[in-house]
Amino acid sequence: MEDKPDVSADRIPDLIKIGAIPTSYGQMLHTDVIDPVTFSQRRARFTLDRVAGFLHSNSKITLGVTPLTSTTAFHPLAIGVSNLIKSATLSIGNEVVCSVDDYSDFHAYQSLFISNEDNKEREQYLSQRCIAHKPVYDDRTANTTDKPPNSAKTIGLDVGRNPVVPAAGGAGAFELLPWMKHNGGSAQGIANAPVYSVYLSDLFPFLKFNQLPCQLLNQSVHIDLVFQDELSSLSGAPLSRRMCVASADNANNAVSYQINREECKLIYDSITYDGEVMEKYAQQNPKLSFQYVDYRLAKRTGDETAFANLTFPIGGNGRLVSKVMYSLASNANFTPLSLLNGATAFGEYNISTNLLYNDRFEFNVNRTNSALLFHTTQHAEGKVPMITHDEYVRRATTSSLTAETFEGRDQSSSAVGLGQLFRWTAIRPNKGERINNKGMDLTYNTTALAAGDYTLRVYLELLKFATIENGEFSCAFA
To answer: How many CB atoms lie within 10 A of CB 191?
Structure first.
């Protein structure tokens, strides 16, 4: 009887797709830690040469900040350490594979869909994203305000630490876990500053579905990061842009925090299979193609009148656009004397919106109802945003968010807390058509905006395809 080969071409699965593969395939994982090839307080670059295997999507970049004069500095709670990144670019050779501008805002949208459990049990340790919720009792003295005693009328943040409550009862003071704070008041505090990480699949979302077959590439893989400005004048005087501080540390609101060169690393995991499997895969795929998505940003800044009746050209000319995500941010929220430091989507206003492309509107009439817009976002993403009603839009004069403080900041406040600061909207075009040369126009009408400057950011999710042939990578818009 003729022996059958151990590995047949028709059995080898598509290994670049993330998902289940037959258990008979032996898999080996190699982890390496590399330093950036260039580094400054403005940017950093990592280069991978001839990785022997598939680049795992959960590889990470670690980042840390050197504590300076402040003793209570922490990363914005919605996006954590990703606030340090202004833009991220992945390139292979001279081809730009994926690029995201204003990454901290893009990541704020991504973070909406992380569950409370993941934020509390994983993300606050991995990236310091802390938007997890729990019930908050109005008065901790039994049977005085809450009836029955186990009821709670408001919601607050939950980092696994009970609030500090006066012995006689009353309002509590919520705080971060001690190790989360950057304490520059002592040598020990500086040495023990926390270090967090960012997944490559968060920086470049297409890696959630595809792994790069680096063993098939004859070109170098480059990851370029542009760091957030040290100071920002968006809210008036120059203030710290990279970190937040507690109310007890208000005087240290203009510190130029420095990214720690020694803690900036790429921890990359490469997956390899049995040698014959890797060889057969290369033979079976002399020309490897796959489809993925990239993002383009359009933004507009103006005062409150600029968004009263706005038709905003957002691009997409000649492209296949699979999703549009947008939000309005108030420049007044860019302050370290808050919980979010500008990573916000301002929602304390009425909105009427629609999308025009190929000479037709997406909706028959403009959408104005906040519940319908929330559903539109859920439908576009296929997941429910894990935020409370009053984090999205205020429903009454009394917020369901507690007014008790977190690091001294009123959690229900739309200026320094969480109230009405997560109002992202996403639309998935349902016609499946290529956008014509006129591009897409966003209809965006707001009323009752407070006086001040605002920035509207619109991200377009565009379809691209990539090809690897003879060790050369190329990509283009679909």
So the answer is: 8
Q: How far apart are the first and last CA of the chain?
A: 49
pLDDT given for residue 35 in this prediction: 96
What pTM was estimated for this model as a whole? 0.92
Burial degree of 111 (CB within 10 A; 0-12, 13-18, 19+): buried
The first and second tokens of residue 379, run together, are: 């439908």
User: What is the distance between the alpha carbons of residues 85 and 44, in angstroms, rounded to a whole number?
Assistant: 10
Sequential DSSP letters for 251-286: T--S---EE-GGG-EEEEEEEEE-HHHHHHHHHH-S
**SS3 per-residue string spanning 176-236:** CCHHHCECCCCHHHHHCCCEEEEEHHHHCHHHHCECEEHHHCCCCEEEEEEECCCEECCCC
pLDDT in tens, 82-138: 999 999 999 999 999 999 999 999 999 999 999 999 999 999 999 999 999 999 876
Residue type, 248: A
DSSP assignment, residue 82? G
Q: Where are the beta strands (DSSP E) in 20-124?
A: 27-34, 38-39, 43-48, 54-55, 60-66, 85-92, 95-100
Distance separating alpha carbons of residues 169 and 424, to the nearest angstrom? 37
How far apart (Å, rounded) are the C-alpha atoms in residues 419 and 164? Answer: 22
